[in-house]
Design a protein that fits this description.
- 2 copies of one chain form a homodimer.
- The first copy, chain A, has 2 domains: 121 residues, NAD(P)-binding Rossmann-like Domain (Rossmann fold, 3-Layer(aba) Sandwich), CATH 3.40.50; 193 residues, Rossmann fold (3-Layer(aba) Sandwich).
- In chain A, helix 3 runs parallel beside helix 4, helix 5 packs across helix 11 and helix 7 crosses helix 8.
- With 335 residues, the first copy, chain A, is an alpha/beta fold.
- The longest helix of chain A has 14 residues.
- In chain A, 32% of the residues lie in helices and 18% in strands.
- In chain A, a hairpin with a 2-residue loop joins strand 12 and strand 13.
- In chain A, the strands form 4 sheets. Chain A has a 6-stranded parallel sheet with strand order 8-10-7-11-14-15, sandwiched between helices.
- The radius of gyration of chain A is 20 Å and the shape is globular.
- Chains A and B meet through helix 7, helix 8 and strand 13 of A and helix 7, helix 8 and strand 13 of B.
Chain lengths: 335, 335
C-alpha cells in the first residue's frame, strides 16, 4: 500500500497541453488543501493558477512530496526533468510518479533519496506482496463504483460520494485503487498493477474492518464487459465485498472505448451481472444508483434522460457534475 | 512466455515423501519421452524408478535442463541443493524451478549460468511484459478446462484431452497456464503470476492464430466462484476466447477448498455462469462435457453417478482416470 507524504508540490515539467496535466488538475480540484503550489520548467505553458514554489522553497514551507502531475511521452521520464526531482529529494521531499518509468531506475534519484532518507513512490507499480483473498466478512460498510466501461467517472463519482457523505456528518473514506486516486487520497493501491493472484487480497487489505456505521467508498476499475480488464474488475469486486454498488455510465458510448467490436451493455443487464458477481462475497449487495457522465447531453436533454432512466431502473440517477450525488448518498445514509 | 529446453533431468533433492515429489511424478507421467532420468541427494528415499544420472552425465547425454521436481519447505530453495544445480549449469544445462525462491536470487547460480550461457527459469514467476488483451478473434479452435473449484483436475483433463485428440489424428496442442503445466509442455505462462492488467493479454499470446482445424487445449485456473482467484479465471477465460468449455468437478467437495463459507455451485448454474462470461469474446462458446474427479466414488457408484449427471445436464460425463476423455474428444472432433 502506498502511503504518500502531504502536502504536495505539483510538478508540471514542460507541459504544453492542458490534457497532459490531467493528474495535476485532478489533485488541485480534489485535494486542494493538500496542495501547496506548482512548479514547472521554463518551457511549460500550462498553469494550475496556484502559487509557484521551487522545490527548495516548498520544502522549507513544509511540503512533503513533489508529485509529477503530467503525462510524459510514452510514459517515460525525460532526462531533463531529473534536476528538479533531485532538488526536491535534496531538500528532503519525497517524489511521487505515475509514469511507466520507475523513479528507482534512475541512479541519480536513488542516490539523492538515500542521501536524505527521502522516498521514491511509483504509484503505477505495486511492489508490495499481498496475501490471497480470504472472503472473510469485514465490519463497516462499503460502496464500490462500477462501470459499463473504463474511464467514465468511477473515480470522480467515488470522490463526490465520499464528500457528500462527509457533508452529511457521516464517517466516510475514499479508497483509491488507481494511480491518480492514490495521489489524491495519499494512500491506496493501483490494483491493476498487482499480481493477478492477489487482486482480491489487495482489495481486502485496502478496506479493512471499520466502525459499523463507517462507509468505505471504493474506486472501481475496468468493467465486467471489457475484454482486457474484466478480471481486474472481478477481483476488486470480490475483495471489496460491497454492500452497495453505484453503476457509472456514459450514454454517448456505444462500444467499449478502443474495442469497437464490444458493445456497451444494457444498464439493467449490467446491474444484474454486477450484483450476481458481487453476491459471492456479500449476499446483501444491491445497486443503489446510477452515476452518469452526461457531458454529451445538453442542459435541456439531461433532465428528461435522467428521469426516464430513473423510472426505468427504479433507482436514483445523478451526474456528479450536474447537481451532485446527494440522491445516492441519501440512499446509503438510510441503509 | 517460458521456453524450456528438453530433455529433462528431474532433481529430487533429499525428498522423503512421495507427495512432495508431485511435480516430478507428473512430469514422468505426462512427458516421459522428454525425461532422461532422475537425480537426488544421498538422503532422498523417494525414487521415480527412472535411470539415475548425475548432472554431468545427463548433460553429456544431451539433457537440456535440470528440473527441480520437488517441493521444498516454505517454497525456499535449500542452500545444500546449490551444489547440484551449479554442477548442472557448469555442464551447460539450464535449471528450471517452480519454487517461491527465485533462482536468480542466488549469486552462485547466476555466476554459473553466466559462465556457460545457461538459463535460470523460475516458472512460478513471470517477468515478461504482455500487452493488454485485444479481444480480436483468432483463427483455429480452442477448448478451455474450467472448474467448480481449484485443484480438481483442470490440468489433468486438458492433458488427457490433448492426448485423446492427437490419438484420433487431430492436431492439438496443450497450452500450459500453471507452473507444472509449463514444465510438462516446455512452454507456457503461469497466468496467476502475471500483473492483473495483462492476464487476458497473456492468454491471447499463449494461444495465437492457428490452422482452422487445430485445437488448442488450454489449462484452466481457479474458479469463477472462488473468493480469491475468480479474477484470474475470468481474465484467462476472456483471453482464451474458447469455442468449447469442459467443466471439471469433484463431487466430494461441498465448499471451496480452504474456504468453508463458500459452497460449490450447482453444476448447471456453474455452466451457465461460465458460458455467459465466455460469450464476451466468443459468442459461439458452449460447454461440451463434464470431467469428474471421482476418486471418492467406488467402482460401483461411478457408473450410476456418471449416467445420472449426464442425463441431467445432457452432456458427456467422463473421469480421465476411469475410462478416459474420449467421449468429450469426440464432441470436439465433430464440431
Amino acid at each position: 500500500m502506498h502511503q504518500l507524504r502531504k502536502p504536495y508540490l505539483l510538478f508540471l515539467g514542460d507541459v504544453q497541453l492542458k490534457s497532459d496535466a490531467k493528474t495535476a488538475f485532478g489533485l488541485r480540484d480534489w485535494c486542494r488543501d493538500d496542495v501547496m503550489g506548482e512548479w514547472a520548467l521554463p518551457a511549460a505553458t500550462v498553469s494550475l493558477d496556484l502559487p509557484r514554489h521551487s522545490p527548495a522553497q516548498a520544502a522549507a514551507m513544509g511540503a512533503g512530496s513533489l508529485v509529477i502531475g503530467v503525462a510524459a511521452v510514452g510514459g517515460v521520464l525525460p532526462e531533463h526533468w531529473l534536476g528538479e526531482l533531485e532538488a526536491a529529494l535534496d531538500a528532503g521531499m519525497d517524489v511521487v510518479s505515475g509514469l511507466h518509468s520507475r523513479l528507482a531506475s534512475f541512479p541519480r534519484l536513488v542516490a539523492a533519496a538515500q542521501r536524505r532518507g527521502a522516498r521514491l513512490h511509483d504509484v503505477r507499480h505495486s511492489d508490495q506482496v499481498f496475501p490471497a483473498g480470504t472472503g472473510r466478512k469485514r465490519s463497516g460498510k462499503r460502496v464500490l463504483t462500477v462501470g459499463t466501461d473504463c474511464a467514465l467517472g468511477k473515480k470522480y463519482t467515488a470522490l463526490a460520494l465520499t464528500r457528500a457523505l462527509q457533508e452529511q456528518g457521516c464517517a466516510a473514506t475514499f479508497r483509491a485503487t488507481g494511480q491518480t486516486g492514490v495521489m489524491i487520497a495519499g494512500s491506496g493501491v493501483a490494483v491493476d498493477a498487482v499480481i493477478s493472484d492477489f487482486v482480491s487480497g489487495a482489495a481486502e487489505a485496502l478496506s479493512p474492518d471499520n466502525d459499523a456505521a463507517h462507509w468505505d467508498v471504493i474506486e472501481g476499475q475496468g468493467a465486467l464487459f471489457h475484454p482486457a480488464y474484466a478480471g481486474v474488475t472481478l477481483g476488486l469486486l470480490h475483495g471489496s465485498q460491497p454492500d452497495a454498488l453505484v453503476l457509472c455510465h456514459d450514454p454517448s458510448r456505444k462500444t467499449i472505448e478502443g474495442y469497437p467490436g464490444f458493445p456497451i451493455p444494457d444498464l439493467q443487464h449490467a446491474i444484474n451481472r454486477y450484483v450476481e458477481a458481487a453476491r459471492l462475497t456479500n449476499a446483501a449487495v444491491r445497486c443503489v444508483g446510477i452515476s452518469i457522465n452526461s457531458s454529451s447531453l445538453s442542459d435541456a436533454q439531461w433532465p428528461d434522460y435522467a428521469h426516464g432512466l430513473s423510472a426505468d431502473l427504479k433507482l436514483p440517477v445523478v451526474d456528479p457534475m450536474r447537481g451532485g450525488v446527494r440522491a445516492i448518498a441519501n440512499v446509503l445514509l438510510a441503509s
